[in-house]
Design goal:
A hairpin with a 6-residue loop joins strand 4 and strand 5. The protein has four helices and eleven strands. Helix 3 packs parallel to helix 4. Helix content is 25%, strand content 21%. The strands form three sheets. A six-stranded mixed β-sheet has the order 4-5-8-9-11-10. Strands 1-2-3 form a three-stranded parallel β-sheet, covered by helices on one side.
Length: 185
Amino acid sequence: MVFGCGDLPARYLEFLADALEKPVYFVLGNHMEEWTRHYVTGKTYDPMGCINLDGKVVRDRSTGLLIGGLPGSPKYSGEGGQQFTELQMSIKILKMLPGLMRHRLRRGRWLDVLLTHAPARDVNDGPDVAHRGFKSMRWFLKAFKPSYHLHGHIHLYDRNIPHVALYGDVEVINVYPYQKLDLDL
């Protein structure tokens, strides 16, 4: 399967879904406006054949993985529709609770993979306002203990800089620019 952690062109995600014939799960990044606009009509759209995880918890039918997603980055300017305050992100997380509880009751676990654009605060995040993580995601990781938290947003140009961190028992992986993962669940 393919996970897109934001700021990927919709046409690229569509290409991956078609070429690989695998499910493509994604969240939008803070630059979503420029990446999901139809080149002819100018309207934004979700990539065809892909699953937008914005505030959702879903079960992948072929693997049984429970996957949830949160889009965007911390608010750092007045521009862009996928920038959120800490309160707005906390509300998005609270709206996920019914889906998380349903899976906990049915399958005995909350979540296997959390897919986000921005990282949690102080876990793979950056020092500037635009690249600081969300405190509410730290709470999410503590409370729901997914096995993996995959995020983008933090550009690692030096491949010697670690892209994996542990937060409790959660393996936090910065997938920028890309990573091939073997998830051990």
